[in-house]
Inverse folding.
């Protein structure tokens, strides 16, 4: 039984708080803190109504280490779940070190002024967390997160050696809005307007943004146009599974989404450098975020499913083998359960499960870790138990080209 501090009261924070509150034997007391306390209070009231559980709330600016330190000292949690934005990863890690509590997040650090995410900054905390006897678990959402656990499971149970990894992420849902992003718009748009990148034969290959795409078939959904993107888990997966000759990430976008994004880019609304407007500096992408729907508000009329999984080719006992492991998640069902859409749900549930593995001792060890470095089995069992059941197929045809077939 442990006290837990959740920071961030957006779409993902809503789900983590509900899922943790549903397990009082593991998470005995919960404090939900964020920049806008009224959002924490609204989540606390939903938890009271749905689960008849009480959680505490607080205001905090997670950019400020002293504020975080005093909040942590007052509440004395065993760990912090960080579901704020990637900009705050380092301040929250610093506060955890200063107060001696464990740490978990769902997205790697990204500086505000460059649209660039990589693990370098957080991996640099390895010695400090190890020496303090504390654990930091990085990227424990769905992707990154479950995709790393799926890959670790494939290595442990299915393959002697994995050679090709394609992570395939489909959102076939319809929220009825002309244009909206499913998680924080600023972070989402920074991610997908970057140059594409994938790993092949020991080096990174770059592509123009969204220039490589093809239809991929998703279970119970059908074929959807899928675009090659750089995604953060590729960096840790190729490091932790060096037998991979190629690792790529694909994500679906509808024509309408691409059309809006192109217009926004063409008119300069996705810029992240400040622009002088009526005597003040504004960042166009931050202004755009302010006028777009909040991810947490999309749930009510959302229909359809997400399907995210790993398609892997490799060898077992000297023979070629393919493996496809995935989860499908239904927007309307997650809305009924916790009042959130499936993208928030598929991120928030794994964050709760990761914290549970740490607090139960299954995963707890000093240092900074990516999820694929830990035993996948207890986490995989909890995915089935807590709302994200997975399915797997061995030796099925996969829709990718492979070097040995060319
Ligand atoms: P939202 O924009 O809905 O929520 C972000 C929350 O953080 C808001 O409550 C916001 O407060 C709060 N916040 C922002 N800045 C600060 C600050 N300085 N101090 C305190 N609170 C702050 O985003 P999501 O919930 O959709 O996403 C949360 C995180 O989850 C992101 O880092 C995102 O990248 C990650 N994510 C990971 C995924 C995965 O699969 N691994 C998938 C989807 C998301 P306010 O309301 O006042 O603005």
């Amino acid at each position: 039984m442990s006290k837990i501090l959740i920071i961030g009261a957006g779409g993902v924070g809503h789900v983590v708080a509900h899922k943790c509150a549903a397990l009082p034997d593991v998470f005995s007391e919960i404090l939900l803190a964020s920049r806008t306390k009224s959002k924490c209070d609204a989540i606390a009231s939903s938890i009271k109504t749905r689960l008849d559980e009480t959680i505490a709330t607080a205001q905090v600016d997670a950019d400020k280490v002293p504020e975080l330190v005093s909040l942590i000292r007052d509440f004395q949690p065993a760990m912090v779940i960080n579901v704020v934005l990637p900009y705050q990863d380092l301040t929250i890690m610093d506060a955890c070190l200063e107060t001696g509590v464990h740490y978990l997040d769902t997205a790697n650090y990204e500086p505000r002024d460059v649209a660039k995410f990589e693990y370098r900054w957080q991996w640099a905390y390895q010695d400090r967390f190890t020496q303090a006897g504390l654990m930091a678990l990085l990227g424990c959402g769905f992707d990154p997160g479950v995709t790393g656990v799926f890959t670790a499971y494939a290595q442990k149970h299915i393959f002697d050696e994995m050679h090709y990894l394609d992570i395939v992420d489909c959102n076939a849902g319809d929220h009825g809005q002309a244009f909206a992003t499913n998680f924080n718009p600023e972070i989402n748009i920074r991610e997908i307007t970057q140059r594409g990148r994938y790993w092949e034969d020991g080096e990174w290959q770059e592509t123009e943004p969204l220039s490589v795409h093809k239809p991929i078939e998703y279970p119970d959904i059908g074929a959807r146009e899928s675009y090659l993107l750089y995604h953060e888990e590729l960096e840790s997966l190729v490091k932790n599974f060096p037998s991979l000759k190629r690792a790529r990430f694909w994500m679906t976008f509808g024509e309408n989404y691409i059309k809006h994004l192109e217009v926004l880019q063409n008119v300069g609304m996705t810029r992240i450098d400040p622009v002088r407007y009526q005597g003040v500096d504004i960042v166009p992408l931050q202004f755009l975020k302010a006028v777009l729907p909040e991810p947490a508000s999309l749930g009510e009329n959302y229909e359809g499913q997400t399907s995210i999984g790993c398609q892997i080719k490799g060898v077992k006992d000297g023979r070629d083998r393919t493996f496809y492991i995935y989860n499908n998640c239904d927007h309307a069902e997650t809305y009924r359960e916790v009042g959130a859409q499936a993208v928030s749900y598929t991120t928030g549930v794994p964050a709760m499960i990761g914290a549970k593995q740490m607090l139960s001792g299954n995963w707890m060890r000093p240092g900074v870790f990516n999820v694929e470095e830990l035993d996948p089995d207890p986490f995989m069992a909890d995915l089935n138990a807590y709302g994200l059941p997975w399915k797997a197929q061995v030796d099925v045809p996969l829709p990718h080209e492979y070097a040995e077939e060319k």
